[in-house]
Amino acid sequence: MIHAEGVRKRFGTTEALRGVDLDVPGGSVCGLLGPNGAGKTTMVRVLTTLLRPDGGSARVAGCDVVRDAERLRYRIGLAGQHAAVDELLTGRRNLELFGRLYHLPRRTARSRAEELLERFGLAEAAGRPVRTYSGGMRRRLDLAASLIVSPPVLLMDEPTTGLDPRSRLALWDELRRLVAEGTTLLLTTQYLDEADHLADRIAVMDAGRVVAAGSPSALKAKVGGDRVSVTFREAADLAPGVDAVRGVLPGEPEIDTTERRLVAPVSDGAASLVRVAAALGAAGIGVEDLGLRRPTLDEVFLALTEAPVKEKEAA
Amino acid sequence: MITMITVEPPATRAQRLRWALSDTFVIAGRSYSQLRAQPGQIAAELVAPVIMTVLFGYVFGSAISLPGGGDYRNYLMPGIFMQVMALSAVAAATSVAEDMARGIIDRFRAQPIARGALLAGRSLADLSKDWLSLAMMAVCGLLIAGWRPRGTPLETLTGFALLALFGYAMIWVGTFIGLFAKNGAQADAATFGWLFPMTFLANAFVPLEGLPGWLRAIADWNPMSAVVSAARELFGNPGSAAASWPLQHPVTASLCWSLLIIAVFAPLAVRRYRTAASR
Fold first, then answer.
1. pLDDT tens per residue, range A106-128
2. A145 with A156: CB under 8 angstroms?
């Protein structure tokens, strides 16, 4: 549904995109992840015809973003970083306005507005000016506005920035529902849990390039598998405890004496945890904390994007 | 499940033209809805010119005598009308900059709206707002300053039309500048900051006879002076001796100035709109 090859964009002397490849199959969710300035927004602007790429090519919903831009604009929905709705007008008037600009007949624009207001729980507030809406309501109206012509592809730039946790969860639910109904979704985010919860595939961007891509679990596996972590109660427990763990785990553990902690890589997850717990219990060793840790996407993110930071520091 | 609605791009040239016109009117309709949502807005914008009318008409005016004779307050009102028109650039710049800052311009640009329709629609709505401002200021002039147009009704109407045309030109100047601003406040500063003083570097409030030569040359060729002189001529209000070509032929000169400004700034603004990025 989205296919980009070697997309480049330069602003003056800064290269915002240095050859971005992206492939998003129909009906899937792609999370574009990266720090500020990585080029996520620029990429979304290229894919939504707001910016002309300097090089490379991109097709969205079967349309070339440069040569077939007009047709493409009837087939995408865009929800940008701001809730791009008119504060002075009512929710209903906003949706009618955007519908008319897709050249829907007046009557269709009106009924579409009602349908979307209903779907996004805004029917009651439909007659109020948007400036009286909460942040979550604005976002929902913004999302509704991007769905007026049933876009097969929806592109969202940091859709939940600035939302409280409840509104965020509600928006995630809406997005999941849309995807279940067949929409292809590309969203940029700085929140790793957002990408983890929503995306089938994640592309990590840094300094204008995609530095890693894959499913959330594949990316986590790339950084390392599960680990068992044990914190001992007393310093004296450390040496016998390490011996007990060595007896049941194949891998070599990492030991932090000041924290009285042991971390060991494991391949069979919870089964190892049970063996470690049994061995420590049998040896009568005092344990303060015991757990199985999976790498979070945060760790993936830092591992993948920290190299260029070091380069910059060295320079 | 949301009902499936799809739209295809226009198939014929005629349909494309119809949709472009429809886009323009839908955008203008948005501006009207905004105006209806804040009915006090126009009145609030006219507080300043009313104060100027009183301040100049009754305070400074008492110390100004016209070289050619005549009533100063009748001399003043065309200048006030012109100032209101010139400052319509400020409102145009502020609102387009606000739309940019809120990402609304991005949404419009990601929609299949005809090229130029957005700015054309806005400018038409602003133009009708200018007519409304002129009508309200004319009533204020009649009531507060004892202003009386002495030309024929057609001449009076032509005078207002020339003022509104100048306002339309300034709307395009403001739109162009507003598309560069980061937010409304910056757009306000980038227009009002030079426009307001410039209305004084003209024959709007004082006769030019007393100005030093170099300043007088600037004021003579200031498009605003031509507009004011044209309005005075058509309203039959007192003017002052004209030494330069634009003020000797003010109707032609103001028409030319306004059309020139539109011819330069409308295409510039449309070009800027197509590439401008929201921040």
1. 999 999 999 999 999 999 999 99
2. no
